[in-house]
Amino acid sequence: MTATQITSIETRTFELELNEPFGIAGGSPDLARIAVVQLRLGDGTLGIGEAAPLTAYNGETLDGALRAIDAARPLWLGRDARPWRLRAHELSAATRASASARCALETALVDALARRGGWSLRDWFGGAGGVELETDVTIPIMAPEAARRAAERWWARGFRKLKIKVGLGQDAERVLAAHAGAPEALLSLDANAAFSARQAIELIERLDAQGVRIELFEQPVAGDDWEGLAQVARVARLALDESVVHARDAVLAATRLGPPHAINVKLMKSGISEALDIVAVARASGMSLMIGGMLESALAMSTSACFAAGQGGFEFVDLDTPLFLANSPFSGGFVQRGAVLDLSPLSAGHGVLL
After folding, report:
1. Which of 26, 53, 140, 249 could anchor a disulfide with 60, C-beta 3.0 to 4.6 Å?
2. What's the whole-number mean pLDDT along residues 221-249?
3. How far apart, in whole angstroms, are the C-alpha atoms of residue 262 and residue 282?
4. What sign for the dihedral angle of Cα 135, 136, 142, 147?
């Protein structure tokens, strides 16, 4: 047995309660159901990663993630962890139906290697950015008056960027109410592919008529509706989420839209290795970068924060979901002060402990 040989891969599952339902156009989960992968190397070093499938987003389930992890286990046991992108490539077939499983396995692998070498994951990913990120905060689909109160509350806590979920009725009223609650906040919208191009444009025009400017409109129409995206792009700056899962999607996005639009990079929808390729395509084409996630705990969010800060150049940061969790089995990770995520305390891996 060598020091960097993968000797065990185990999983544990958790149900994390939410402070409030996290409503998006595809549904309104009231629990975050996650799986934690614990990967051990031959010298005893342990790395951990999180699978956080969000059925309301892309149909993935926790059972599906667990099956994919089980299928991947024999591919890695006994193998050397150091050529980690080769190890990641070996997961392609086993995790085809569960990107969250791929994310968890890759995270556990690079976390173990970074911890063994005494690197923070921020440095592991390049150390190109600073040690702090400023995140937005999400206002889920809710009644307008509740959105106003939420905006007031988040503004008082130091959040200057609000991402408002739309696509399920009372959308303009919800946005206008949030604007009334925090009139100086920068606003973005996220429809999770729920609109037609006409509906998205009408919403923008209605808000514009009320003097409400939208900084960014995330995935207004279906992921493969490139003509619809092009139509909405004439009136709003877009962030592509469901449209870009693989690097080949990023190439298509650069060809069909290009700058100044952004690509929302999510480790949970693509895995780490594929996300690095997406970032490379975005940079080569001049498109902007956004870092986001599903309904994730501090484990996955700290990994994504390290990814964004390590790679550098992420204009938009949407790493807020730990704020919506009422309980968590983890300690460590980034330190949050209002909207600021501070990675300076991280000395090894992503810094999260179970």
Report:
1. 53
2. 98
3. 8
4. positive
